[in-house]
Amino acid sequence: MTIHTFKLQIDWPGGRNAIGELTAERLQTQISIPLEMNGPGIGTNPDEMLLGAAATCYIITLAAMLERSKIEARLALKSDGLVDVTNGVFTYKAIHHHVEILLQDVDDERTRRLAERYVYKAEETCMISKALKGNVEVQVHLTFFGG
Prior knowledge:
Layout: E1 8-11, E2 20-24, E3 27-31, H1 46-68, E4 73-86, E5 89-103, H2 109-125, H3 127-132, E6 137-146
Parallel strand pairs: 5-6
Antiparallel strand pairs: 1-2, 2-3, 4-5
Helix pairs in contact: 1-2
């Protein structure tokens, strides 16, 4: 068994509306509560970071699946994170990935079906999606484009 350890450090100067500094091996950014949640809105925030983790994991997993099957495609992804606020309680409810695939031969039915299968399989396979399962609903919406 191999264990990978990822580390980050946060310097947080004070109360709820402070602005912190997050440093990881390949990421440095300011963090704070977003404006939508009555915070200062400086830098990124936990909601964007969770969405970013889910989106990057998903698109890289999908790209790897397509590559292994020798399907040449260009991918674009837009993702939305939906946070519910009920009685002052914030709950991350859902993530919607809107993936666009540009296939070299969009008319090849076999390639198209296989690519479509991978679009949904990647969400089930991605490590972050698995970590969210049972807590945050993740949905995938697909659009094909021809080359």
